[in-house]
Design goal:
This protein has about 325 residues and is α/β, with parallel strands linked by helices. Helices cover about 50% and strands about 10% of the residues. The protein contains 15 helices and 8 strands. It has an 8-stranded mixed beta sheet, sandwiched between helices. The longest helix is centred in the middle third of the chain and has 23 residues.
Length: about 325
């Protein structure tokens, strides 16, 4: 199969490597000319995925028409804040019948749309599948065993992506709960920022465990309000991705939270890295989405105050601990 990967960051590069390893003709589109050049000449992406050697059969380009030409599967990995513009700008070049796969995790600012909704709105004639789960790009590129979920309301589309992406070291499960998979993938980044902040101010493992567990409860509440099934959040795209991103040293979102917790200004932290920490944008969107749906999300509100209202991290975390006592499981 001819596949196009749209996005030359760490995750896009790792997925292109996976496709090429599976024998698929793979063309990766990168906005940055140096990323495309390195991929073609040295089979590496030192800018966004240092330490990984990528399959030499990947062809990289900065020409969207070249990337999309003849592609039967288009895998979108652009950051959430530019995904709509990227898809819309080249929608006319996507081949009829091509399957659109969305590996971006987030909630669009303003519209509060999930990433599959963004792509579906811009490519209404195409099948759309979300891919999510606990998967650090560097480990995938190095061939370390990984399991993720391909979610679609079209079982045939999910099964097609399952077949294309699966390998001896990359296991793909299918799921028809697109909303649950997407909400889990988006909100785990917010919780990773939260656990990083807690670690940055010097809190311990008890605090991290509490944030992960109560964070899962918040994710589930919002997902169910949007139509998701609660059991999805006990799976790979929920608990699996949440634990990885909140505890793993490779997590960009946790790393950003750690520096904010240590007292650095958010603008300075973000200016020091080219990699996108989706949890920052998603915090703002998740807070707005929770307010729209009438869902109580105290951790999201606390992280929003820290990031966007300059509340001191210790004060925000103290507010969380001082909330009115309540049952663990609400009716």
């Amino acid at each position: 199969m001819r596949c196009a990967v749209i996005g030359g960051g760490a995750w896009g590069s790792a997925l292109a490597h996976l496709l090429a390893q599976g024998g698929h003709e793979t063309c990766l589109w990168a906005r940055e000319a140096d990323v495309a050049a390195h991929l073609n000449l040295s089979h590496a992406n030192p800018r966004f995925l240092p330490g990984a050697t990528l399959d030499a059969r990947i062809h990289a380009t900065t020409d969207m028409a070249e990337a999309l030409g003849g592609a039967q599967l288009v895998l979108y990995v652009a950051p959430s804040h530019v995904l709509r513009d990227v898809v819309r700008g080249a929608a006319h070049r996507v081949e009829p019948g091509a399957l659109a796969v969305v590996a971006t995790k987030g909630i669009e600012r303003g519209t509060l749309a999930l990433m599959t909704d963004v792509v579906r709105q811009e490519l209404p004639q195409h099948g759309v599948v979300a891919v999510s789960g606990p998967s650090f790009a560097l480990e995938v590129a190095r061939g370390m065993p990984t399991a993720v979920v391909a979610a679609s309301d079209d079982p045939a589309a999910a099964a097609a992506v399952q077949r294309v992406l699966s390998s001896p070291v990359f296991r793909v499960y299918s799921n028809d709960d697109v909303v649950g998979v997407e909400v889990g993938g988006a909100l785990k980044n917010v919780m990773a920022v939260a656990t990083g902040i807690a670690e940055g101010v010097g809190l311990g493992l008890n605090s991290r465990a509490a944030l992960i567990t109560r964070g899962l409860a918040e994710m589930t509440r919002l997902g169910v309000a949007l139509g998701a099934r609660p059991e999805t959040f006990a799976g790979l795209a929920g608990m699996g991705d949440l634990v990885l991103t909140c505890t793993g040293a490779l997590s960009r979102n946790r790393a950003v939270g750690l520096e904010v917790g240590q007292g650095r200004a958010l603008a300075d932290v973000l200016a020091a890295t080219e990699s996108v920490a989706e949890g920052i944008t998603t915090t703002d969107s998740a807070r707005a989405l929770a307010e729209r749906e009438g869902v109580d999300m105290p951790i999201v509100r606390a992280i929003s105050r820290i990031l966007f209202e300059q509340q001191a991290p210790r004060d925000a975390l103290a507010d969380l601990m001082g909330r009115e006592l309540r049952p663990e499981r609400d009716a």
